[in-house]
Model the fold of this input.
Amino acid sequence: MLPPSSDRRVDAVIRDLADVAGVAVVPDARLDSLTTLRIGGRPRALLECSTADAVTAAVAALDAAGVPVLVLGGGSNLVVAGGDLDLVVVAVRNREVEYRGATDDGAAAGGEADDAAAAAGEAAPHGRIVVRAGAGLAWDELVADTVARGYGGLECLSGIPGSVGATPVQNVGAYGVEVAQVLHRVRWFDRHTGVDEWVAPGALGLAYRTSVLKNTDRAVVLEVEFHLDPAGRSEPVRYAELAGRLGVEPGERTEAAVARETVLELRRGKGMVLDDDDEDTWSAGSFFTNPVIGEEDLPTVRSRVADRLGVGQAAQMPAFPGANGVKLSAGWLIERAGFGKGYPSSSSLARLSTKHTLALTNRGRATADDVIALAREVRDGVREAFGVDLHPEPVWVGCSI
Ligand SMILES: Cc1cc2nc3c(=O)[nH]c(=O)nc-3n(C[C@H](O)[C@H](O)[C@H](O)COP(=O)(O)OP(=O)(O)OC[C@H]3O[C@@H](n4cnc5c(N)ncnc54)[C@H](O)[C@@H]3O)c2cc1C
Done:
């Protein structure tokens, strides 16, 4: 790969962008200091963009010049190769937040917002509050703010690292809630048409940990709107462990602030809240999605589990039927395939979290190659043991599993 300064074309675009309001060129950037897995090499340049217009200007200019772009939020869902990277990082850093109420007929209130909502045909759902946030705002800052103001809706997604703008990218979800449930509209810069526009959730193709934005260069998210419950009630609590801890029946709502604290407590216990002092959190979160298999394949998987671990374990294997097939638990399969918490050992540079088998962690000095080798070993081991394919959840840059 080319060193950052060797391409005059890239240098010329970066020089021009340095004069654009809201764009700051950061010298000597390294992605290992910008990703939660703490791996990744040197991009050609890093542009910090503090306004939506700056993000749009940077991406448009780089696309026009044919320069590969990495749109970066909090770096918490990335596996990035080491060495010199043939790309420019556009870090999305616009962080404004604005609330608006709902009128009796359910239309969003507030001049410019009214016009935009009407133009997009997207009035706020009846009786809901709408919050608009800049894509570069830290997601959990937004969740904390909504809950502190007494609004419900985002509480079960507390403690997820990263930015607001990345939440629609993989339809982030946790504890039985996905952003799709509370997403009102997204403002994106369509990189194919060059149009900056508000789109309804239907345009995003949101599904389990994916959307039309994931692993594509389709668009950059500039702002996101969520609709919230002004009475401060949580989304229905569907996740059994959370319901049990909260003392509610599955499907009931509770006070958003209480749900947030309980979710944070559960997440900390699993190393799923970033903590500089806890190496179990130096990860990209869940490394594999829960595999979805055809209903017809379930008996085969159960019999492979029975062969290996006995009929008792086979009967207990978590399996959740849904519209697209049966969802299995990646963490359960990984552990039963012989990859326990902390695998392979306390001296390994890359190892599974000691709190959760689904998180691959960098204990400080691992390279991208170390992490990828462990990911391959786990994926291959699960396939060999049970015939189930695991797919990575993070986005891969300059490397692949
Ligand atoms: C400890 C830990 C726990 C986690 N728990 C969860 C969880 O419970 N549920 C869950 O779903 N995820 C979880 N994650 C994964 C991750 O936090 C989310 O996917 C998060 O939304 C990623 O946000 P980010 O800003 O860090 O994105 P980045 O890692 O910076 O980017 C990820 C992808 O999104 C793209 N992207 C980022 N911003 C934009 C934008 N504005 N416009 C267009 N594309 C963009 C990037 O180009 C890249 O392809 C966890 C991660 C960690 C480290």
Remarks:
- The two ends are 20 Å apart (CA to CA).
